[in-house]
Amino acid sequence: MDTAREKGSKLDPKWDADGLITGVVTDSQSGELLMVAHLNAEALRLTMETGEAHFWSRSRARLWRKGETSGHVLRVVELRVDCDQDALWLKVEAAGPACHTGARSCFYRRVERNGVLQGNFTIRSA
């Protein structure tokens, strides 16, 4: 157990072998899970400095600000770190859908016992 990291009062992320930390993103009002992404040190710094969510795209191998092309920016209301500092929780106000598919959440499908994906859409007025 890394007592200093777990008991300390300083942010000291435990980066993985690729220099990343997992970010779990939820709606600050409803608590709905919107997306999961990864941050490197630069993405975390920019997120903290600007108040807008920045991530590291593993597939594109580049830094990106959520909403940079769609306009669906995630304004960070609260940022939390878990007990051993290897995951972040971003509570956000979303300026539109969080998912690149246009769905409000990236978690719009439910996995049934037989492994079949079923739609699980919730329609909400803005």
TrEMBL record:
<dbReference type="InterPro" id="IPR038019">
    <property type="entry name" value="PRib_AMP_CycHydrolase_sf"/>
</dbReference>
<comment type="similarity">
    <text>In the N-terminal section; belongs to the PRA-CH family.</text>
</comment>
<dbReference type="InterPro" id="IPR026660">
    <property type="entry name" value="PRA-CH"/>
</dbReference>
<keyword id="KW-0378">Hydrolase</keyword>
<comment type="pathway">
    <text>Amino-acid biosynthesis; L-histidine biosynthesis; L-histidine from 5-phospho-alpha-D-ribose 1-diphosphate: step 2/9.</text>
</comment>
<dbReference type="GO" id="GO:0005737">
    <property type="term" value="C:cytoplasm"/>
</dbReference>
<feature type="binding site">
    <location>
        <position position="86"/>
    </location>
    <ligand>
        <name>Mg(2+)</name>
    </ligand>
</feature>
<dbReference type="GO" id="GO:0000287">
    <property type="term" value="F:magnesium ion binding"/>
</dbReference>
<dbReference type="GO" id="GO:0008270">
    <property type="term" value="F:zinc ion binding"/>
</dbReference>
<protein>
    <recommendedName>
        <fullName>Phosphoribosyl-AMP cyclohydrolase</fullName>
        <ecNumber>3.5.4.19</ecNumber>
    </recommendedName>
</protein>
<keyword id="KW-0862">Zinc</keyword>
<feature type="binding site">
    <location>
        <position position="99"/>
    </location>
    <ligand>
        <name>Zn(2+)</name>
    </ligand>
</feature>
<dbReference type="GO" id="GO:0004636">
    <property type="term" value="F:phosphoribosyl-ATP diphosphatase activity"/>
</dbReference>
<feature type="binding site">
    <location>
        <position position="82"/>
    </location>
    <ligand>
        <name>Mg(2+)</name>
    </ligand>
</feature>
<dbReference type="GO" id="GO:0004635">
    <property type="term" value="F:phosphoribosyl-AMP cyclohydrolase activity"/>
</dbReference>
<keyword id="KW-0460">Magnesium</keyword>
<dbReference type="Pfam" id="PF01502">
    <property type="entry name" value="PRA-CH"/>
</dbReference>
<feature type="binding site">
    <location>
        <position position="84"/>
    </location>
    <ligand>
        <name>Mg(2+)</name>
    </ligand>
</feature>
<feature type="binding site">
    <location>
        <position position="83"/>
    </location>
    <ligand>
        <name>Zn(2+)</name>
    </ligand>
</feature>
<keyword id="KW-0028">Amino-acid biosynthesis</keyword>
<comment type="subunit">
    <text>Homodimer.</text>
</comment>
<comment type="function">
    <text>Catalyzes the hydrolysis of the adenine ring of phosphoribosyl-AMP.</text>
</comment>
<keyword id="KW-0368">Histidine biosynthesis</keyword>
<dbReference type="InterPro" id="IPR002496">
    <property type="entry name" value="PRib_AMP_CycHydrolase_dom"/>
</dbReference>
<comment type="pathway">
    <text>Amino-acid biosynthesis; L-histidine biosynthesis; L-histidine from 5-phospho-alpha-D-ribose 1-diphosphate: step 3/9.</text>
</comment>
<keyword id="KW-0479">Metal-binding</keyword>
<feature type="domain" description="Phosphoribosyl-AMP cyclohydrolase">
    <location>
        <begin position="35"/>
        <end position="108"/>
    </location>
</feature>
<comment type="similarity">
    <text>In the C-terminal section; belongs to the PRA-PH family.</text>
</comment>
<dbReference type="GO" id="GO:0000105">
    <property type="term" value="P:L-histidine biosynthetic process"/>
</dbReference>
<keyword id="KW-0963">Cytoplasm</keyword>
<feature type="binding site">
    <location>
        <position position="106"/>
    </location>
    <ligand>
        <name>Zn(2+)</name>
    </ligand>
</feature>
